[in-house]
Amino acid sequence: MSQKAVVIGAGIAGLLAAAAISQAAPDTEVLLLERDMLHGKPEDRRGVPQGRHAHLLMAGGLAAMESLFPVNMRDRLLKAGAHEVALANGMLALSPAAGWFYRWRRNGPHMITCTRALLDWVVRQALQESTTRVTIHQASVEGLLGTAQRITGVRISPANGILPTELEADFVIDTSGRGSRNLEWLKNIGITDIEERKVDSGLTNATRIYRTPPGAESFPLTMIQSNPYNGMPGRSAMVLPIEGNRWMVSEGGTRGGEPPKDPHRFLQYALSLPHSIVGQLISSAEPLTDVVVSRSTSNVRRYFEKSTLPERFLPFGDALATFNPAYGQGMSVAALSARALAQELHRTELTSPGLSRRVLREAVSHVSTAWATAVGMDVLYPNTQGGELTFADRLTAGYARRITQAAASSPDGASALWEVTSLTASPTRLVQPKVLLAALTGPLLPQLSEPPLTPSERSILQRLQQASINRI
Ligand SMILES: Cc1cc2nc3c(=O)[nH]c(=O)nc-3n(C[C@H](O)[C@H](O)[C@H](O)COP(=O)(O)OP(=O)(O)OC[C@H]3O[C@@H](n4cnc5c(N)ncnc54)[C@H](O)[C@@H]3O)c2cc1C
């Protein structure tokens, strides 16, 4: 008899969880329940407010995603207008630990940049084309059915009256995002021992979209990273290319260094960073939107793996853990978790005892890597809440700083750092002998105080600066 799975939330984690089931257990009927009304196009949604800010899809996340669909997701995304950026030489990055990164003529991981609306849309289309067993319904889940031993379905408030209020299922996946009420739902069926940790640097993001200035289409993704080492609030900015010949410009500041909503001050913020290049790039560019500000960016981890989680229930994506978005890892962790589900379902049945615990164990290993990166830095900012600095934190932060210093001017260090950041290699890559040596010997080349621009990039920047002077 075919089985039925319910997935709560059609964000990126929900779509990928549904794809994992439909690929590895194709007879299973999957009901994807989404609170928002979905339309047949890329769209910003109320349920995904973070979608208006910069979203980078790392190589490890893309590879995991590719494994879940019969079509080539990279090609689809690029065809839909997304950009592909090589970490080794396709971007300009100013690191607080080491100055500007040198650019190397090496192969290495790439990342995909586009709006979150486009990414979700391309993934949703691929899912709906690949199977008829997954159906998306507009409904809000209000609770879980079952006992502390086993979940048997969800309680919903259907918007259309088609689904019953008590919807039975053989398996339930919670991908309802950062606002998931899974702790409360589990408490209502008697599970009260799930630990939660929150580390909040007070990060605020402000984003505005601009038309890419004519002639600047090839200008690389540019980022000024935040400085956790000087005891001051973190402040950062990034210009990334997105579909439709546009630039998405995102500023981020921790508590005390928050970027403004006011358009004039938004530009001033970019110009006042340790290097003014982001401000220079946008000062004469045509804005296409207002500045959008979001504050829900804390690192939150729910330790389901340490509790007595019921059978047939799995929390995924932001419902399991969220990370400071500055490191661009949330979607990739969700994709790697979905791949773990598919792998487990290739071996065993959806209803086999212990399935959720086994998948959770694998998902948690990806969560832990991302958590260590994000929290290891966030605890260094002043007034971070919930981030007591342990000896291990100091050690990790100290080594991360040395690796970054080495990576800025050493191709071996850079390769290792980019692979770990991209989630294509595990953190043990950072302690391989060559990398360890690079970290211990320190920078090989002089620190770059100016971005390593090619002659044509330099002339684009000069032209944009001139255009901005002419406007005054
Ligand atoms: C400012 C910012 C920038 C970010 N940048 C990056 C980045 O560069 N790279 C990256 O990888 N990650 C980034 N992230 C993280 C990324 O947004 C999340 O990790 C990702 O969205 C997680 O996907 P999800 O499906 O778990 O949750 P979401 O995408 O939030 O989706 C949850 C879905 O569940 C629905 N829902 C909620 N409650 C219910 C309910 N009760 N019933 C039914 N449906 C429900 C919502 O409507 C929504 O559609 C960023 C986050 C922020 C805040």
TrEMBL record:
Q: Tell me yes or no: is Cell inner membrane among this UniProt entry's keywords.
A: no
Q: List the signal peptide residues.
A: 1-24
Listed EC numbers:
1.-.-.-
* Record flagged with keyword Magnesium: no
Which keywords does this chain's UniProt record carry?
A: Oxidoreductase, Plasmid, Signal
GO molecular function annotation: FAD binding; oxidoreductase activity
Top enzyme class: oxidoreductase
Give all residue intervals belonging to the FAD-binding domain.
5-345
**Protein name (record):** NAD(P)/FAD-dependent oxidoreductase
